[in-house]
What does this fold into?
Amino acid sequence: AVLLANHTKGEEPAAADRMEKFWVDASNSKLYKNWLGGIARGLFFEGGLYNSAPLEDFLKKEFIDVNIKRSLDLGIVDVLDGDYKDFSDKNITQGGNLIDAMYASMSFAGFFPPAEVLGSSWFDGSAVWDLDIFSGVNRCKEAGFAESDIIVDVIMTSAANLKQVQAEDYKSISMLFRYLEISSFYNSMDGLLRAKFAYKDADFRYVITPTGSIPSSLYPLN
It folds into this structure.
C-alpha cells in the first residue's frame, strides 16, 4: 500500500514493478534473527521469539525516499492502553515517522517484540482489526464523496473457506497455528460483513481471497 501511495494516478505499472522488487528484496534479506540464546530466550526473557532489528534496517533502506502521494492508512495497536491508532497520509510524511509506523505495523505479537517507536510500544493492527475496511470508507466520506459513489475492493487475509484438517496428531504449536487460522478467518469475515452492513450504499465490487490457506510456520514472513 505504501509503495502504491508513492505513485500518482496513472503510474500503476511503475508501482507494480516497485512492489515486485520490494518482495524480491525481502525474500533475499534476513528480516529477523535469533536472540543470543535462541528461541528459549525470546520465549522467557524477551518480548518476542525473534529479534526484529534487521526488519527495521530493511524498511529504512527500502522506504527512506518514499513520498506519500495518495491517501493511505496504517493501523497499529498501542500495547500499553490497547487503543487502535490510525496513521495516514495526514500525519505520515516520509522518512522517520513513516518507517516507524511501518515497523510497528509489521510487529506481529509473539513473534516479534513490540516496536518501541512513536513514544510508545506497538503491535500490528490485526490485534484489533484483521481487516480494516472502515478507515478507507470513512476517508472517502470525509473527502466529500457520497456513500453511493464509493467503490470498495477488498483483499482478504485468509482463504475464502476454512479447510477441514486431520488434527489427531497436532501438538501444541500445530494447535496454536490452527487456532490462529480459525481466528483470522472469522475475524476477516466479520470485518467484511460488518462493513457491508454499515455501508449499505457502497459498492463492494471485488473481494479477492487466497486460493488456499496461508501456511503457518514458526518462521514469520517466511
